[in-house]
Amino acid sequence: MNRTKLPLLKHNSVNYLLPFIIITACFALWGFANDITNPMVKAFSKIFRMNVTQGALVQLAFYGGYFAMAFPAAIFIKKFSYKSGILLGLALYAAGAFLLFPAKMSGNYYPFLVAYFVLTCGLSFLETSANPYVLTMGPEENATRRLNMAQAFNPIGSLMGMFVAMNFIQARLNPMSTAERALLSETEFEAVKQSDLSLLIAPYLVIGFVVLAMFLIILVMRMPKNGDKDKSLHFGTTLKRIFSIPNYRQGVIAQFFYVGAQIMCWTFIIQYGTRVFMNRGMEEQVAEVLSQRYNIVAMIIFCISRLIATYLMKFFDPGKMLRAFAIAAGIFTLGVIFLQNIGGLYCLVAVSACMSLMFPTIYGIALKGMGDDAKFGAAGLIMAILGGSVLPPVQAAIIDMGTIGAAFPAVNASFILPLICFVVVAWYGTQAYKRSKITPRA
């Protein structure tokens, strides 16, 4: 069968177009949450007068929620349905967003971490449900390509999150530098902190209402019940079975390192760009805003590249493409490390073009042929998002060193971690490609 001629969204006379559109909108919603939050590491560090490592606890709480809730989400979906999992995910997403208001009233940092954790428990339900659900909406032969198409809307939400973070949070925060805030009296500091926190939480409250609206739309819609017939739970047996599959087992490892690389590159582009522009004589806040613009450019390139990669997947093996993109990402990351000027920032932007197809392609390769086991398989891949929680604090600790040796910028040296991640992804692409030649695609 020629896989290029198979319909993406119609199978056995069932048209999945409308459900696909609705579920794809959820991809944009969690993209927004991810990328309005990445710049908050820098914002919280400034607002609460903390170092980068303490600010990176936002990422630890944010992506820790993915890890904690992935398998409970899979069990819930198995017991009920994909639709139920999506609805619960949206409810937790909205609850986490609204919890930022009492966190702001407390004036303390740690309630914000709790709110982010609840929010991402919702995102864990959403991703554990929506990704495998999209894989079922059409022929299995082009499931990876279909997921790439759905995932193309994720960076659209990410772009919106970055835009809101830059224009409605970062640009409006009090322009005093971290050093200047350290000189304020306790009363002055509290006044500035509360003003900044009010700005920070406002977009989250708005998105909370948007998420509630999406919850109501999906609640009243009739959705296909693909993979919802078997309600039996054989947790241990299923885990043993899926982890015996090399594509899946190695895919979980690759996804851990890929997500870590993605979050590091998108979070610490602010620190990287700020150093570059401050070396050119710019003030800290101006340098931060300009760095965020480069982050938005990176996301636009990411969006375009994902659409191109989705098209090319009609003609090339997914594993082979994954390997090629990972090698290119590694080469650009070397430029990020060794170029200490604007060229390094250009290389960091270019890395996003290479990352574009990685998440959905790893996901699709790992779950191919799993059938109903994909519910638990999806949970393992979502737990692998823990890489976005574990690795950024390590990079932040390196950045806090200031310099390595005599004068090498620690922020440059810290990108050795994403480089290692891309090596792992390239390895997985190679292994998957070798297996696809042994077992040809339909």
Describe the fold and architecture.
It is a single chain. By secondary structure, the protein is mostly helical. It has a single domain (12-223, 233-438), classed as MFS general substrate transporter like domains (Growth Hormone, Chain: A). It has 21 helices and 4 strands. The protein has helices at residues 17-37, 40-47, 52-55, 57-79, 82-106, 110-135, 143-151, 154-169, 178-182, 186-220, 235-242, 246-267, 269-278, 284-312, 318-338, 342-355, 358-367, 374-383, 387-399, 410-413, 416-438; strands spanning 10-11, 14-15, 403-404, 408-409. The strands form 2 sheets. It has a two-stranded antiparallel ribbon. A hairpin with a 3-residue loop joins β3 (403-404) and β4. α1 (17-37) packs antiparallel against α6 and α14 packs parallel to α16. It is globular and about 60 Å long. It starts with 9 loop residues before the first strand and ends with a helix. Mean pLDDT is 85; it is low at 1-6.
- Side by side, the strands of the main sheet go 1-2
Global mean pLDDT: 85
CATH superfamily: MFS general substrate transporter like domains
| Amino-to-carboxy terminus distance | 6 Å
Largest sheet: 2 strands, antiparallel
Rg is: 21 Å
Q: Give the tally of structural domains.
A: 1
CATH class: Mainly Alpha
Total number of beta strands: 4
The rough form would be described as globular
What fraction of residues sit in β-strands?
Answer: under 5%
CATH topology: Growth Hormone, Chain: A
Question: Can you name the CATH architecture?
Answer: Up-down Bundle
Parts with pLDDT < 50 across at least 5 consecutive residues:
1-6
